[in-house]
Amino acid sequence: MSVDRLDRVLARLVPWSGSAPQPLDREEVAIAELVAGAGHHRLVGVLGAAVAAGDLEVEGDEADLVARGHATAMAEVLLLEESLLDAIDILDEADIDHRLLKGSALAHTVYPDPSHRSFGDIDLLVRSADIDRAVAVLGDGGADRPIPALSADFDSRFAKSVTLRWRRDTELDLHRTLAPAPFGLRIVLEDLWAEPGRFDLAGVTVSTLSPELHLLNGAYHSVLGDTEPRLGNLRDLALLIGTGLDTDLVVETAARWQGQAVLARAIELVRSVGAPVGELGDWADRMVVTATDRRRLEAYGRRAGRFRRQAMATLAELGWRDRIAYARAVALPVRAHRRARKRSGSG
Question: What global pTM score does this model have?
Fold first, then answer.
């Protein structure tokens, strides 16, 4: 079974918002391969639910394989959530405001059962002015930063996020924005700090984004992050669209961020897997992507040469003072950054 074929089979098992999963012919799928694919796409919980509902018939050993895959994913999730609570405690103690992003937040706010949404890291948003201090206080708490910043002020001015190795061998990404440049530079960062959504996790109130901002975050991640978005990310978007969120606010915010092309592309991706997209689909049909935005989107294409393309596109977006600082940091990063890149084999 090819990857494309596997993805199509998985998509048929997913109960997209407002639609029922399609039962599969047992001869279509090898369970071991399906479990592995579901793990990659963050759908192993959905796979387990499909087995429980009879949408995928399995025999004894195969049921055990699905159950073990789900248990493994949930064990990782519990470790991540324990580590998240540790990070929140440290940031709160330092009086650093934060918002939880992506899968870990959506599992508890959008999914019918949190066990249906697995994830592989923690994503926390902090303000640009706080990101250096957040890295420092988490470092005092045991976090390790494998790759130092390119320059002393690069993170607070230009970076999308900082990746830390955190407790229990987990990954913690501290974000100051939702996407790398050039589209990331256009996001109005203060918009991200509007009235937060909240949920309870083990007795702790966790702050996150509103549904409208979660939708835009998911759109940017699906279109500008992975070259091939995970089906789990597309299901995030489908479920958010089905929550009855304020579509006018979504469109207005995308326009303020000059990110209409990103949102329209994300809506196309959701529709491509058979999920309903409602009024946003009508809007996307009317949207005309400019030649300039098409060029910007090309900066996020195939992985080969992506950093160079994004760097060149970023320079075109910056004023001359920022352009000089950015170009100097990229061309002549500090010694600690160069050494760490060399040790990791990525530079």
Answer: 0.94
